[in-house]
Amino acid sequence: MEYSRLGSTGLQVSRICLGTMSFGNSEEWMIEIDKARRIMKRALDLGVNFFDTANVYSAGRSEEIVGELLEDHRDAVVIATKVRLSTGEGPNKEGLSRYHIMDQVKKSLSGSRQTGSISIRFTAGTIPPP
């Protein structure tokens, strides 16, 4: 596997990033942990250390799967996730307010999602003007 420096972060990431939008159960085309386990193992065996997920993929189930499957590899992988998109009803359940960002970081790191660490937090979608 070839690795590249990710911008000015200092992180070395595999040139292939495994996207996990298909991990979960909210759509018929998504796959649950049993099938995702084989994909993650193969990626790790090939040297992939960069994984992308989001708090809205299958209402957080993708983060849960990623967290569980990478539990023994946390010091060796880079996990990217996203924030901004709606996670429920109400004015503080989406956007880039400090409250929403911190709430979603907390949920990504703890509880059932247990990603344990987030290396990169992306802003999803287009940011509307103030």
Describe the overall structure.
The chain has 130 residues and is an alpha/beta fold. Helices cover 26% and strands 17% of the residues. The chain is built from 3 helices and 6 strands; from the N terminus they run βββαβαβαβ. The protein has a 4-stranded parallel sheet with strand order 3-4-5-6, covered by helices on one side. Strands 1-2 form a two-stranded antiparallel sheet. The mean pLDDT is 82.
Topology summary:
Elements: E1 3-5, E2 12-14, E3 17-19, H1 33-45, E4 50-52, H2 61-69, E5 78-83, H3 98-109, E6 120-123
Parallel strand pairs: 3-4, 4-5, 5-6
Antiparallel strand pairs: 1-2
Number of helices: 3
Mean pLDDT: 82
Shape annotation: globular
* Helix content percent band: 25-40%
Number of strands: 6
Q: Which strand-content bin applies to the residues?
A: 15-25%
- Compressed to H and E, one letter per element, the order equals EEEHEHEHE
In terms of structural class, how would the helical and strand content be classed? alpha/beta
Q: Roughly how many Å apart are the termini?
A: 42 Å
Q: The biggest beta sheet, please?
A: 4 strands, parallel
Rg (CA only): 15 Å
Low-confidence stretches: none
* Widest sheet: strand ordering: 3-4-5-6
Keywords:
alpha/beta; single chain; 26% helix; 4-stranded parallel beta sheet; 130 residues; 17% strand; two-stranded antiparallel sheet
Task: Describe the structure in brief.
Helices cover 26% and strands 17% of the residues. With 130 residues, it is an alpha/beta fold.
